[in-house]
Amino acid sequence: MEKKKQIDCFLPYSTTAMMLSLAAQLHESGVVKSIYTLSADVPPTEALPQYTHHLQAGSLLSLATMRLIAITATADYALFYLKQGPITLGYHALERMLQVAEETGAAMVYADHYSVEAGKTVKHPVTAYQLGSIRDDFDFGSVVLLKTDYLKEFEAKKEIARDYQYAGWYALRLFLSRKGELFHLNEYLYTEEEDDLRASGEKQFDYVNPRNREVQIEMEQAATAHLSAIKALVDTTQYVQPDFSGEAFPVEASVVIPVFNREKTVRDAVVSALSQKTDFPFNVIVVDNHSTDGTTEILSSLAADERLVHLIPTRTDLCIGGCWNYAINDVHCGRFAVQLDSDDLYSSENTLQAIVNAFHEQKAAMIVGSYRMCDFDLNTLPPGLISHNEWTEDNGCNNALRINGLGAPRAFFTPLVRQHQFPNTSYGEDYAMGLAFSRRFRIGRIYDELYLCRRWGGNSDAVLSIDKVNANNHYKDQLRTVEILARQKQNRDREKGLTDFFHNQLNQWKDVAKRFEELKGVQTREVGSALAQFNPARLVSTGAKIDKATLAKRPCFLCEKNRPVEQIVLPFGEGFDILVNPFPILPVHFTIPSRHHQLQAIAENYVQIHRLLRAYPQLMVFYNGPKCGASAPDHLHFQAGTSGILPLQRDWERLYETSVPLLQLNDTEGIYEIKDYICPALAIVSHTEKHDVELFSRLYEALPLKEDETEPMMNIVAWRNGEAFISVVFPREKHRPDCYSAEGEAQCLVSPGSLDMAGLMILPRQSDFEEMTSERAKAVLREVSLSDEAMAEVVKRIRNKAVDLAFDDWKQEPIVSVGIVSGDEIRFQLNGTYTIGNKEVTGKQTVKFKDGQILWDSALYQELCFTPQNDDISFTLEDVTIGVDFHWERKEAQTFLGKLRFVVDGDKLWAINELPVERYLASVISSEMSATSSLELLKAHAVISRSWLLVQMRRRKAIEMGVQTASAPVKVSDEEGVIWYDSDAHTLFDVCADDHCQRYQGITKATSPHVEEAIKATRGQLLMNGKEICDARFSKCCGGVSEEYEYCWDNTHKPYLLSVVDNAPLGTAPTIDLTDEKAAQEWILSSPKAFCNTKDAAVLGQVLNNYDQETQDFYRWTVDFTQSELAELIRRKSGFDFGEIIDLQPLERGKSGRITRLKIVGTKLTRIIGKELEIRRTLSESHLYSSAFVVERSEVVNGVPQHFRLIGAGWGHGVGLCQIGAAVMGEKGYRYDEILHHYYQTAAIEAQYK
Known about the structure:
Strand 50 and strand 51 form a beta hairpin. Strands 32, 33, 34, 35, 36, 37, 38, 39, 40, 41 and 44 form an 11-stranded mixed sheet that branches. A 10-stranded antiparallel sheet has the order 21-22-23-25-24-29-30-28-27-26. By secondary structure, it is α+β, with helices and mostly antiparallel strands.
């Protein structure tokens, strides 16, 4: 007897009661093997029904959850419940779905159901799935039965280009549709509660709601991958440009208004059209489809305007599409036909002019504008402006198959509409035309408001029944089915066209046909992992001279005027021709030259490789750099040919498996270092043109450029592998190996190009072919490649670019994570509603460390994140320590905006605040500065605080990605206690909230309008050193001369952190050498003029908050110690017993006179300490004001001083901006850019994000 099939069930966890009910129903069916609950949280064990297992998952529809289900499922089928509300299964519902799945072999089974809406149970039928049902809002109901074998295949392939947060389920069901049927069972098998009771007219615009933008981006990526997989992608590089001048028309444009019984609105629509102001003649064609309500009479009353063309069809079977055809085919129709529905209005008198201008500017066959939803009184209705800005130039035509509309108003180039004609329907007719146009022609976009879509009770599509919605959706799915089939045919025809072109050329050019025939018998043999080919015909290319003199003498054989008369052309894109290569290496071999004579250069033309592979996925495309195998370096060209025969391609799966990712855009797109190959190589793996070009640009910038070269030396070999586009780049050092020009037997005529680098070594001489060995092949390729050292530098550059990419190259405002407080128990209050997983939480809370996890609300978590429901909600943390290890250390409750995250750190918990950088800065600058500070000072501080912060964020990410190692604290040697500290110590967050980073107190202290103004005025502005963000250090008071970076931290010279005298003229280097001990002592004991040498309480109040003002002296200060005080202090702070202290001897000072190496001489121990912060920590209970001090010893008894006095200068490390000096500069009227350029002389101020 056949084993009974079983089901594993996967249910989103909601409430205990609902889980108990649903689990009981499933368990009782007799066909369920296992039941799993899904949620981000770990529910208490008692909340889980018996015989269920819990899976900790991400969001319900994420790719991670889909993969988790696929990995976990062991039964024949997996039931997935897509909602969280109550559900009641019908009698034997699971058995019926299982039976149908088995009997049909379907990849998925879904069914009709009942829906409880506002307490009433109604039927909710769904529609049958078809090829065109790829819209992401397709209604399957909430219960689907999936074939486990296909789930396993989906998980194993891991072909998805990124880790979708929203489009995981969408990507899975598209995959299932490629594997088998998604079977609609037209039976009502369960009852669910409907929680979205909005009218159909409101739901239909969810996909254009800006709040859903991230969702839509993912959905588009998943849809594009699916269309590529089923070979239905439109290649926009193959678009035909319409000829607007080829035909005469009575007017330039016609506004077309089909109408039936719209006496309430038609006058407004016609007047709106006739009121347009243009610099060309136009008319308004109204197709009156036998109105019976007074519409016809209203139109007749407007007939005095000769521009109004009132048409009444002779036929009575026309729908809206038929009325459009009637207008388009009428003799009065203009060159462009522009839509206006009889309910609607144009937004302004300039709409028509803007549309016609767009046709010419964008060279498009159709233009789509943007419209605003409004009521009859023109009040805006949700979602407001609908601009369809999800449309992109290269992918809008493909994404159009995912959504149910293209936008309004729509305008068409009339001759093309006459060729195609609208379907005679009153729904989807314009969508069908838009899809058909986008298959062959560019659709232009206008994202400004052009049109008012008026919603009122008489609208036909404001509120629709479920049956009508289904009928409409089914019809549009059918339109998409037709369009997908047409696109598949178009792509097949294009591929066939290339094959036909190749054979036509061979038929017409017998010499070339002979060479291709001879190639079939060419000798090849394995030489290690490479393949040698004996090809005498290639001597012309291998031996080609490419020096400037030779190139100048010979006619360019790639220019059209110099080609053989037998050579025929297949145009490609806007600027290239495809030619059959007359001296082939490959069974099918093409050359693709530019139509214009220009130098061989890849930077701006790499995109052509992607486009060639998109148009002809059966090809392999390659590029030889000007001195890397190109026999025509003076004429831009690519080559292409048979894919799959190169050793590089043959071994690709193994090579990719052992490659090292250097920069990744997502899970499957990035730049990889190929490790297990005969020569250095880098690979780009991409899925879209945009990503391919972006990745190559980053790789290109990382390659070394020789002084006499126009571009980095390289070869490129590219091909398609399923949905992936693969480009392998071979960075080069030499044009040819030494053996090429050697004499006698040492000579080997090998001039490596792309194919040689890819393992197919072309040898035109028999002797070279016979003598080639694995070792020699490897030696030749290694000789012309980059050295290991140069390659390591390239890899380092790419990995650094990966760090910036993690922050989107700082094009968007980043989110900073701030460590606020740590402990084994943290108490806090949520001052509003926060969400965690599916829960809403507010009020007082406590988290505790327990067994290596976080205990909260009786459950254990690895990590907790509380997300506010809006940006203005705050939380308050108790017992936050401020001024850690400083003299003002204290605890207080502090309040913050943004997310609150808890993580485990060893045996304690950290509370981390995540919020936008600009909001963080408002708190930092309010904490660091007084509200009375000058605006210019606040602007300067905003720029440096932002710059410093982003450097810390970048550094932490670089450490996390393994690009650099943490540098804090760093000890020079055991003999010397020279050590420096930096904020790299933070690994769980970007910065801490205390003075060791930047003082951050959230909204505990009110942000002044002055600070807000300064931050707004400088939004996104950073100090830049070329493309690098400046590490913009700052301190309270430099003491008269600022310090340089390397004297406080690692021995790296930063050109923008130079020592300057803190006085006018601005940016002056010190004339006194303060690294000299005698000069430093004299200078510290004096009190030279400086911006920061002030006692002005008003100015000091700008920089020093209340507890900072507890410090009175800072420009010059004095600290006294008795022998016992100093000896005990140093023993405790250093951990060494020096005995009695005999002397403190400065050994090395920085440019500001700050001591960086200090010898402590004791009766028991002598030891050197540094750098400046270690000295300050060792000689103070908290921190000495600075390490720029002079030591005075007195009361010496038996060689041991009984009293020490330190006389010092400045407060803090002194590097970069001096806050008190900058405050004085602000008061003196200096602008913020002048202040910044005084302290950071070589830096540029640039806005990185808006």
